[in-house]
Amino acid sequence: MSGKPSSVGERIMIAIGLLIFVLSSVTLIQAISAYEAGQTGSAIVSGIFSIIGFGLVLSTVVQFRKRKKFLLREIVKEGRSKIVCASCGFTVMRSFVVGDYIPKQVGQCQRCKGAMQISEICSTAPHGHQHAH
After folding, report:
1. Which of 31, 33, 67, 73 has the highest CB neighbour number within 10 Å of its CB?
2. pLDDT digits (tens, 9 = 90+) for 29-78
3. Residue 1 in domain
4. CA–CA gap between residue 116 and residue 113 (Å, rounded)
5. How many angstroms separate the CA atoms of 53 and 103, rounded?
6. 70-78 long-range CB contacts below 8 Å, 24 or more apart?
7. Looking at 76, 94, 112, which one is the last position of a domain?
């Protein structure tokens, strides 16, 4: 979990969120200008739209953070790391440990004393399917 968007869908949602934030900021500026010009009705309407926009952006950010934390907990709880010897190909599966990454070196091979490194990190999804991360 590097903090970067991991899918096209997430990137699109971030772009939409930024657009809504910019539009809400412009609408807030318009609301302030309308209020200063004595156009109370326009100021209230623009202010309400601005608040709704900022609320949507804030809600989206909170939901993304909750989702990322949930996914990280699931990987830690259900994750498996596949460790392979670079020399002889000997393979071991073990529980995921926070700090695991590909291609982290994790010791010596039991067979040939070659370098063992993580080649895959996966989590067990419901129904027994494996998903690589």
Report:
1. 31
2. 999 999 999 999 999 999 999 999 999 999 988 888 888 777 777 666 67
3. no
4. 9
5. 42
6. 71/1, 72/1, 74/123, 75/1, 75/121, 75/123, 75/133, 78/123, 78/124
7. 76
